[in-house]
Structures are given as structure tokens and as C-alpha cells.
TrEMBL record:
Organism of this sequence: Chitinivorax tropicus
Cofactor names: Zn(2+)
Keywords: Metal-binding, Methyltransferase, Transferase, Zinc
Keyword Metal-binding: yes
Amino-acid positions noted as binding Zn(2+) in the UniProt annotation, renumbered to this chain: C230, C295, C296
Presence of the UniProt keyword Transferase in the record: yes
Gene Ontology MF terms: S-adenosylmethionine-homocysteine S-methyltransferase activity; zinc ion binding
NCBIfam families reported in the protein's UniProt record: PRK09485.1 (NF007020)
Hcy-binding domain mapped to chain residues: 5-310
BP term (GO), one: methionine biosynthetic process
The protein's name: S-methylmethionine:homocysteine methyltransferase
Matches recorded under Pfam families: S-methyl_trans
Amino acid sequence: MSTPDHLAAIQHQQALIVLDGALATELERRGAKLQDRLWSARMLIDNPALIEQVHLDYLLAGANIVTTASYQATFAGLAARGLDRGQASAVLARSVQLARSARARFMALKPHEPLPLVAASVGPYGAYLANGDEYRGQYGLSDQALWDFHHDRIATLLAAGADLLAFETIPSLQEARVLSHLLNEAFPQAWAWLSFSCRDEVHIAEGNRLDECMDVLSKNPQLLALGVNCLPPAWVPTLLAQARQATAKPLLAYPNSGERYDAVHKTWAGSTDPQAFGEAAHGWQQAGANWIGGCCRTTPADIAAISQWARTDR
């Protein structure tokens, strides 16, 4: 069964596709130290077993898709840590292998559940810079430079057995276009979703209107869903309404928990409640989202709260 058919079969059984939640902040919650340019990808080297356990816990919470720990794993970033080309390829492949291993463990425990899918995370160029540019864009790079940056990482992740790609936290229409063209021209058998980081309830991080971006990307049949991630939950309904006016594709949303990040002290402020997050997610579905999960500071409990109603509201 193809990836699109598999996803359609899952959504025939429940109200929406349930994505997983945060990886890096969940690893930190479990004691991982991620003060590193590689962020969560550091654990691919230091503690891969912890990554696999987080994947498994999200599957047990009801996620239909788990996203690999490759968001900030790039050939350039791994080279800066002293890894040669072969070692870097092995780290990238390991991110997929860990998710697939967690899936195998899940299916051994829950053999009658739908087979979950593995999405290989492809973070933006700004994530490699590790300076917050995934929330600003404006890299000043050519299309060819972005193509070259992303191409080999995507090839490695697909060769390792990812079911689809997650182009996530993309701040600019330029980078989104490059990724879309790369998918068509270099990987015509691959599937992906693409989600933007946003600066407010109307614009993506670099400044284009979200609906304009949706209109451009809608023409690519390999992009199975479009949407937003890593943003305040309160922005989601308005952004989804805008996106729905511009595309008939499935929409996805996986915002942060709602807590606020203090970049000066590198701490989070506020509180979160899984039940409230799950109820908010119900509203995002009513606003047009077909695929829903969580980003920074969300946990397996948040995903369980979404899955609970997604599996009964049919």
C-alpha cells in the first residue's frame, strides 16, 4: 500500500491523522542535555536508545506518524563536529532506524493497530545555523545553494527507509519552493508534508502571507499536506482558515504547548494542561486541520489527549 493510501485508510477509521509531539524538549524533560548546535540530533550520537523510547511512547499515546530526530542533523553540522561523510551518513540513517525500531516494538505490543508511518524530519537551513533563523528566514542564499544543502540529506533519509519527509518549521517561501522542486525533480517517488513557521496569524516568518504560500505549493502532488508548526496555539485557527481558502490539500497543525520561551534565560514560562491542549486541537480540526500533533514542550500526554477524541469522533 502506498503512503497516501495508507494515510487514507487510517483517516477512514478515525477523525484525523495524529502526529507525534516534541522530541527535543521531551528529551530534555527526561534528562538529556541539548546545549549544542546539533540540539536533539546530539542524542543520535550520545544516547540513541532514549530517542527510540520517546518514539515508542508517542506511538503508545496514539500517534499515527513519528518524526525522526534529524531536524538539526545535517552533513554540514555533523562535519563541524568532526564526523566524516560516512559517519554523518550513518547518523542520519540512524535517525530513521530508531523510529522504525520503535514502530516494530509498538506493533509487537499492539498488533491490531494500524501500522504507523515514519516521517524523516528535514529542518530548514536556519536550523543548521542554530541562531534562530528558522523563525526569520532571509538567509541571503541562492536557490542552488539551498538545493545543494538539502539534497544529500534527503537522499540519505529516504534510502534509510523513511515513509515520507517532514519539511518543517520552514520560514521562507523561497526555501519552500526549493524543497518542492527538489522533491519533484530529484525524488519523484517520495512523499512529504511542508509546514511553515509564522510571525503572526497572517504571515509566515519571512513575511509572505500564508495563503500565498499555500497557493504556490498546492500544485505539487507529492506534498500530501501543508500547514504550520512551532507557533503559539492561539494563532492556529486563523492561519488554518486562511490556508483553507487557498488550498484543497489536507492541512496540518502542530503548535507549541502554549508556554512562552525566554531566549535570554533559555527557560520556558507558563503552564500547560494536556486535556486543554486536546480540546484546543478539536477546535483546530473544526477550523480545517486534517493532521494534528504538537511541537515544542508538548508531550505524549498531549498526544494521547488528541488521540482519545480522534478515535471516537468518527
